[in-house]
Design a protein that fits this description.
- The protein has helices at about 15-25, 80-95, 105-110, 115-125, 140, 145-160, 165-180, 190-200, 220-230, 235-255; strands spanning about 5-10, 30-35, 55, 70-80, 185.
- By secondary structure, it is an alpha/beta fold.
- Helix 2 (about 80-95) crosses helix 9 (about 220-230).
- Residues about 40 have low confidence and may be disordered.
């Protein structure tokens, strides 16, 4: 198992910190490389490839295994129901903000089908998990108030987006990334999937503590759920595909044992 390199492609608000915190408690720190946007260019004095067994953090990407040669890369990812993820994202944001805005005001300016865009970036080798506003605009929008910041950021992104055909190409890339993963976990099935992953990594009796659920400032209901599904159809397609891939991966892994 020391020859296996576990790489977590960690989209935001999918419960992945639960896995990360468990691994940090169970394994020596030198065996874990935490990839962050600030540090994805490696500090060679700290980074010892021969000892690294886990690459974790939001800034991992497909291809990062090349930094740790001579090991078998096993990419894995956790996805979440699109509506649940968006509500969780809002609640986490508002928990930290002094000046809160309504969910409708926040959601109106969010990038739609965000997971498709994120996974497209990951397949292309980007360490980012977010669709960032080009840096040239940042000094301007940082001076704006909270509501205006979200509005301008979303407006700029949508202005720079290509046509809808490009979005469908991104969906195909996102699906390809799932196909390339060793396992695709689903947060709604975390009781089974997290246990399965942690056991595969060498933790005999995996136990974990939830990494901290944000206060439920907004609770989801069926009307809101359907609205989010309707406005994020590619993310819904991606989630359904992930459910299918999960089952296929489980069968393949069981056959290989």
């Amino acid at each position: 198992m020391d020859k296996v390199l576990w790489i977590f492609l960690h989209p935001p608000r999918t419960g992945g910190n639960t896995i990360i915190e468990t691994l940090l408690k169970k394994f020596p720190r030198e065996e874990i490389f935490m990839a962050s946007l600030a540090r994805y260019k490696l500090d060679t004095e700290e980074f010892k490839p021969k000892k690294v067994r886990f690459m974790l953090g939001h800034a991992t990407y497909y291809g990062i295994h090349k930094l740790v040669p001579d090991k078998e890369p096993r990419y894995f990812i956790v996805l979440r129901d699109p509506a649940e993820r968006l509500i969780s994202h809002y609640n986490a944001k508002m928990e930290k903000e002094m000046k809160k805005i309504s969910f409708d005001a926040w959601y109106k300016n969010q990038i739609k089908n965000e997971m498709v865009h994120v996974l497209d970036l990951k397949l292309k080798g980007s360490p980012s998990t977010r669709i960032h506003t080009p840096s040239i605009f940042l000094p301007i929008i940082r001076k704006l108030n909270y509501k205006a910041f979200y509005f301008i950021q979303a407006f700029i992104f949508n202005l720079l987006r290509l046509n809808k055909k490009n979005d469908y190409r991104k969906l195909e890339n996102a699906k390809k990334l799932l196909d390339l993963c060793w396992f695709v976990a689903i947060l709604e099935k975390s009781d089974k999937d997290f246990k399965f992953l942690l056991k595969a990594m060498g933790i005999k009796n995996p136990k974990w503590v939830d990494d901290g659920v944000s206060k439920k400032i907004v609770k989801i209901d069926e009307k809101l759920r359907q609205k989010i599904y309707k406005e994020n159809p590619l993310d819904v397609q991606l989630y359904k595909y992930a459910l299918k891939v999960r089952e296929e991966k489980l069968k393949l892994i069981k056959k290989s044992k």
